Amino acid sequence: MTESVRAPEKGANVWGQAIAAVAMVTALGGGLWAYGQTSESSGPPPATCSDETPGKPTGRVTGAQLCEALLRPDLAELLGTPAEDAKTASGSDGSVGLSGGKDIPMPSAEVEFDTYTVTLSATYDDLPVAGSESLLRDAEKRTVLGRPAVLYSDRTIRIAFRLDGGDADSGPGVPLRSLMVAKDAKDGGGSFDVTLWRADGMVPDDAVLLRLAEKVLPTVPGWTAGS
Q: Where is the segment annotated Disordered (predicted)?
């Protein structure tokens, strides 16, 4: 018997893959900041982001704050699936270590529905968004909310864990679409990423992704219009 999970495939967008990997490990370890409680009479209620006690201020957005921004009341409607409720919602304050001992903070959040899974992440590096399209698959330069952005494709990895303790198995997953938006209008380094994939394996609609990003990103703590 196996249990399968999905994570973005390792490719040119190294930072994006690292965020997803951190979020997946957090979920598998039971460190979710949100959960749904089951009810025998009415079924599970919609997922909620928990009231985590904030840590020491860092001047950066946290995974819990990203979860709150993403899990908005109209999220299912923005995704075009208004009858669905969120099944899970989680946040993670992950980071990626680079050679030389430097860590790149990469907080992220993920919300799963029956049809879609959507993630929101922030990358605190010194890399501009402009020019990254040459490193990404099916990439298109865009301007979103007055900031440089790149719309691109990737694919999840299917990871099957054996419940009998045997070796895990992995293989190609489903296609995803992701939007990388500069943290400021001057593109001085760092980005927000909104990523979308479908449970049925169909390619997500770019119009849905763009509509979602334009509604969610301005609500992220620290976002300043026109800056």
A: 37-59, 82-104
